[in-house]
């Protein structure tokens, strides 16, 4: 499955077979520095799954959105808005 909206740019690995995951995908997966990931290979494709993509405040994995590249759930967003009033 190709990520909708991702720039159609090829990426090269370096000498250690490392590559940069585009920011659009990092945000979509809630990947931040230190996030543990799991790799799977299926039918010649590599899948990367974040192990702890939960809300940075409550740990919920429901209703997540990226805020400055970090996952925050809808409940914590609403709580922050109420607290700011
Ligand atoms: Zn939360």
Characterise this structure.
The protein is of the alpha+beta class and 85 residues long. The chain has one domain (23-84). The chain is 21% helix and 24% strand. It has 2 helices and 4 strands, in the order H-E-E-E-E-H. The strands form 2 sheets. A two-stranded antiparallel ribbon has the order 1-2. A two-stranded antiparallel sheet has the order 3-4. The longest helix is centred in the C-terminal third of the chain and has 11 residues, at 74-84. The protein is elongated. The mean pLDDT is 83. The chain binds zinc ion. Zinc ion (ZN) binds at residues 55, 57-58, 60, 73, 75-76.
Query: Structural class from helices and strands?
Result: alpha+beta
The poorly predicted ranges are none
Helical stretch count?
A: 2
> What share of the residues does DSSP label as strand, in percent?
15-25%
Terminal Cα separation, in Å?
42 Å
- Which percent bin holds the helix content? 10-25%
Shape: elongated
N to C succession of SSEs: HEEEEH
Number of strands: 4
The largest sheet is: 2 strands, antiparallel
Radius of gyration: 15 Å
List of distinct ligands in this structure: zinc ion
Q: Report mean pLDDT, rounded to a whole number.
A: 83
SSE blueprint:
Layout (H helix, E strand, L loop, with lengths): L22 H7 L7 E6 L2 E6 L13 E4 L2 E4 H11 L1
Antiparallel strand pairs: 1-2, 3-4
The chain binds zinc ion.
Outline of the structure:
The protein is of the alpha+beta class. Helices cover 21% and strands 24% of the residues.
């Amino acid at each position: 499955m190709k990520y909708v909206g991702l720039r159609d740019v090829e990426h090269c690995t370096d000498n250690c077979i490392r590559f940069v995951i585009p920011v659009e995908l990092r945000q979509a997966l809630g990947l931040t520095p230190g996030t543990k990931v799991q790799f799977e290979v299926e039918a010649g494709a590599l899948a990367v799954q974040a192990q702890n993509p939960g809300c940075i405040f409550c740990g919920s994995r429901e209703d997540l959105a990226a805020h400055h590249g970090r996952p925050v759930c809808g409940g914590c967003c609403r709580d922050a808005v109420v607290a700011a009033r």
